[in-house]
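Posting for a labmate who doesn't have an account.
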Amino acid sequence: MDPTNKPQGLSPHYSLYQREVFREGGEHGKLPHFSVHPEELAESTKKKLNDRSYFYANSNAGLGWTDRANREAFYRWRIIPRMLVDTNTRDLTTSIFGHKIPAPIMFAPIGINKLYYPTGELVPAKIAGELGLPYCLSTASSQPIEAVAEANDAGAAVKNESNSVHSYDGPNGGNAQSPRFFQLYMGHDDEITISLLERAWKSGFDVCMLTVDTWQLGWRPTDINIANYAFYYPGQVGNELGTSDPVFMKKHGEELKQDSGKWIDSSVWHGKAHTWEKMPWLIQTWKRISGGRPFVIKGIQNAQDALKAYEVGCEGIVVTNHAGRQVDGAVGSLEMLPEIADAVGDKMTIIFDSGIRTGSDVFKALALGAHVVEVGRLFVWGMAHEGEAGCRHVMKSLLADLDITMTVAGYQSAKDLDRSALRYNQSGIPPAAVDHARL
C-alpha cells in the first residue's frame, strides 16, 4: 500500500490501484461510479443497457448449466496461502508467442461492441494498448480491422506517468507494444478467408485464433425470447468486417442490399461445420501470409482434441466452452484444464477462457496449467457503464486483484504457480448457484 516502500519489480505495481481509489475517496470524496464486484457489476449492467445489448454477451445455452459449471469449478478449487514469503517484489510477467507482456491476462474476442458503447471495439483495443496486454479482435466486430489496429496503436502510444499502475517497459526499453490476435470465424469461401487474414496481418495482428465451437449459435432461450440477432435489425451492427472487405463486397455487395444477414449467415455463423481435414490448409495459408506466425484453435475441451491440434501444427489452444453459450449441460472449462495441460502443456501455449471474474480465478487457472487467461464479459460490462473509463477501471481492478492475491497468498511469481498452490474440494457449490437452484 505504501508506494515508497516497495522495490521496483518486473511487473507494474498493479496493487497500488486500490490505494489510488482509497485516497481519491478519502481525500477528495471521489468514489467509483459503479461496483467492480462481479455479481453487482453484472446486475448494474442490466440497468445500463437494453435487453438486446445485454443478452448478446450474456445469454447462455439452454438452462445455463454450463455457465454455472464454469463458476462451480472455480469454487471447488481452493487456494492454499503461504506465510512469511518475500512478496515485496512480484513478477506477473510472462511471454506469449514471442511477446513479453506485463501480466498473464488478455482481452477475449467479443463481437458487436457497439452494442455497449458507440465506438465499439475501439474502446477495449485502446485500453489493451495502454495496459500492454494482448487484444483479440472478433470476426463479428462492429469496427473494421484497420480502425481497431489504429486504436490499439493509439493506446500503446499513450505516455505513461512514472508512477502509473499500468506503466511497463518492454524488453528493449520504452512502452511495450501489446500483441494483437485476430479471431477467425471461417466461412466456406476461401477467397474471403484469405482476404480477412491478409487484412489482419497488414494491420499488425500477428496471431490467428480460429474458433471451432460456433459454426452456428447455440440454443439460447433468452435471445429467442426477444429475437435477439442484431445483424438483422436496422443499422446492422456486426457486419463491418464484411462491408469493409473488398473481396466480400465484390462478390456479395449487391446481395447485401436485399439481405442484411448475408455477411453473418455466410461468413460467420453459417451452420456448416469444418473438420480437422481443413486445418492444414488454413494453417499453411496463415503461415504463408504472416511469415510463419502462430496459429491457435479456440474451443478445446478435451485432451484428445488438444493433442490433435498439436499434431496438425497449432502452436496454441484456447481451453473454453464459449462461456457456456454453446452446449448446455457441458463440463466446466476449468474442470478439463488439468488433463489438457498434462497432455500438451509442455508442447503448446494454453490460453484459458470461460468464467474468469476475479484475481483468484486467474491465479487458479494459472496454477492448473494455463499460461494466459482471457477476460471477456468483465471488460464489456465496464465499457457499458463508462466507455473507456469503465473498461479501464474494470481491467485495472482485475490486475490489482491478481497482484494483491499473489501478495497476501504468499506467491511471488506467476511462474511459481502450480497445483501445489491449490486444494480440490469435491462437495459444495457457490451460494449464488444454490440460490439460483431454488428459484
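Reply:
Got it, the C-alpha cells are right above this. The chain has one domain: 11-438.
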